[in-house]
Amino acid sequence: MVFHLVGVSARGEVVVRKKCSRNQALRFTSNLRRCLIGMDACGGSHFLGRALREQGHDVRLMPAKYVKPYVKTNKNDYIDAEAISEAITRPNMRFVPIKSDDQLDLQSLHRIRERWVVRRTAVINQIRGLLLERGITLRQGRKHLQASLPQILEDADNQLSGSLRVLLAQLQREMQYLRREIEEFDKLILCIADELEPCRRLMAVPGIGPAIATATIAAVGNGAAFKKGRDFSAWLGVVPGEHSTGGKQQLTGTSRRGNKYLRKLFVLGAHTVLQRRTKQSAALSTGLARLLARKRTQVAVVAVANKRARMVWAVLFRGEEYRPPLSPQPVAV
Length: 333
Fold this sequence. Notes:
This protein is mostly helical. It has helices at 22-30, 45-54, 64-67, 77-87, 101-133, 142-154, 162-195, 197-202, 210-220, 229-236, 260-275, 282-294, 297-318; strands at residues 2-8, 14-21, 36-40, 58-62, 240-242, 251-254. The longest helix is centred in the middle third of the chain and has 34 residues, at 162-195.
C-alpha cells in the first residue's frame, strides 16, 4: 500500500510532498509536532486514524465525494492529497467518526451475516428456478421451500431425472448449512446486545431488535457525529430528497443515501411495527392507524422508520431510556 503525503502551511503553501509506505508514513508523522491530518474514509483508514491519534495528532476522516469538489485540475494522488488538505479546513465539512475495535468487530459480524443471507437467497432462487423448469412451482417464502423440498426429492412420480435430484440435494445441504450459520450469528448478536447497556436501551424502542441495535452502535457509536435526530435520519436516507431552486422548494422521493444495510434494517423494523400495531401501546397504535388512513403503506413505513431513527439517536446521544408516548401522536411525513 502506497501513501502520498502533502503538507500545507498555515498560509496554504505546500511544504511537504512525499510518497511512502504505511510504516514509513507512521514513522514520518511520529516525528512531527501535533498537527491536523485529513484522510479519505476508505479501507484501513480507521486503523491508521487511531494510530495517528495515539501519536497525538488531530485526525479527521472525510467521505471521498465531499473532497472531490476541491480537486482543481487533472487527477493524481498528489492533487487528491492537496484537495484533502483544503477540504479539511472548511468549517462546514462533514467528517466520519473513527471507529473503535469493538465497533469494527460488530460491523464485521453484520457484514458476514449479510453475506450468508445473500448466499442463502441465491440458493433458494436457484432451487425454485430449477424446479420451475420441470413444471414444479412452489409458494413464495423460504419456509415453504424448506418444507416442500424433501417431499419433492422423495416423490418418484414427478419425473425428475436422477442427476437433477442429486443437484437439488446438494443445494438443499448448502441451504441448511447457511441456515445454521445465520442462526449461530443471530445468537451471537443477541448475546452481544444483551451485554451492551446502550443496546438494551435501544431495544426498548418498538421496532428495534438486537440486529438494528448492534448495527447502529457499529455504525455511529453514541451518535455524537450528528447534531440532532433529523441529521441522523437524513444520513440514514429515510427523509425526502430536495432539489429546490429560485426560492421554490421541491421535495423528491426518499433520498436513500448513507448506510444501505442499516437503512434496510430500519425499514424492516418499521414494517414490523405497522404489522403488529394492535399489539403496541394505545397511543402508538392510534397514531399508526391514523397514519395508515392518510398515507400509502410504503410511505407510512418510511415515515415510521424516520421516526424510529430519531428516537434511536435521542436514546444513544442523550443516554436516556425510551419513553413511550402518553397520548396519540401523529407521525410526520
